[in-house]
Amino acid sequence: MNHTHTTWSRQTSFWVAAAVVVHTLWTSAAPAMMYPLYAHQWQLTPTVTTLIFAVFPVFVVATLIALGDLSDYIGRRAAMLLGVGASLIGVLLFAVAPDVTWLLIGRAFMGIGVGLSAGPSAAAVVEFSAPGKAKLAGAITTAAQASGLAAALIIGGGLIQYAPFPTRLSFWVLIVVLGATLFGVWRLPRHTPAESKKPWSLKVPHIHPPLRRTFLVSVSAVLSAYSVGATMLSLGSQIAHDLIGSSNALVNGGAISLFAIVLGITGIVGKRFGSRLSIIAGASVSIVSLLLLMLATKTHALPVFLLSSAASGACYSLLFMGGLNLINAHAPMHHRAGTLSALFLVAYLMQGVVALLLGRAATAWGLDLAIDVGSLALAALSLGAMLLAIYVRQPPSKADAG
């Protein structure tokens, strides 16, 4: 059977796995620039627009609870094929949506797609990387997330502003990208040494007992990263629109995409950092970025918002990469995708909760007060991640965790 299945080289497989990581963030953020258009077109409140955002992490979480370690049993390739396929259905529903219901169903499919492929793609990037380069894999995963995010915001903003069919065309572009990614995944090796020989069964995500202290530190860091990301992705275009006073979607998308661009650059520069140093630095920058966001909403100053957006990208990158590298350094191969899926589960759950709470607060209190209260709460979360990284001791790692 394998004779008819032509597979990529290890290096090409590495980049295909990275492309699947790109899709997880591009798909997640694809509607980010559309929320003001949907709100105008269908007279939606911030509660409803953040609900469109929040349906996504809810379904990511449900998928991770049920199927988080699936790829440890059926293989990375099979799990990623299912994941990218589900994302493709979700994006197609957005491309043709006649009303909000279609968007909510589309977001559910996107969530299932990312839930099926987030853990396996992050694990595959490690497994297809050159021997001894696990830390580089963390940096590439972070940079791939940044690329997906920047593409969603800049391509989305540009097509909304300067092309026909503003609420549809960027989704058709993404459909072409996902089709190419699906082809790439199809030609990955069918089986890798990371697969467990036991049959898969439905079970609640479980953290291998020796990994629990590591997981606690790691999850607190990734939680903080995703919470800051949720603020930018669910309300960023609204904040940018209000602050910049510009109706140009490309300018607004560019302002938010500074978050993604700095995220990617920090991922490449910060790969030399040890995991704990990365988390401590990321948490510190996170607190600064949230204070700058509060100041930006008070003063309506574009330069302050741009600084906040850039600092948010840097903190997301450092926190996410620190948390990911900690798991990569300590998790045994057969537990890696399951542990990474549990990590993403908690992170996406928090992202959904943060987005919904911010949306409700913005509807009830106005955007300014919602940002103030949310920023203080998220700063406290970052402080917690920093303290855990400083005080919780790690067991010896199989690779260099820093």
UniProtKB/TrEMBL annotation:
The keyword Cell membrane applies. InterPro entries: MFS, MFS_dom, MFS_trans_sf, MFS_Transporters, Sugar_transporter_CS. Residues 12-397 form the Major facilitator superfamily (MFS) profile domain. Its main location: membrane. This is Major facilitator superfamily (MFS) profile domain-containing protein. The lineage of its organism: Bacteria, Pseudomonadati, Pseudomonadota, Gammaproteobacteria, Pseudomonadales. It is found in: Cell membrane. Gene3D superfamilies: MFS general substrate transporter like domains.
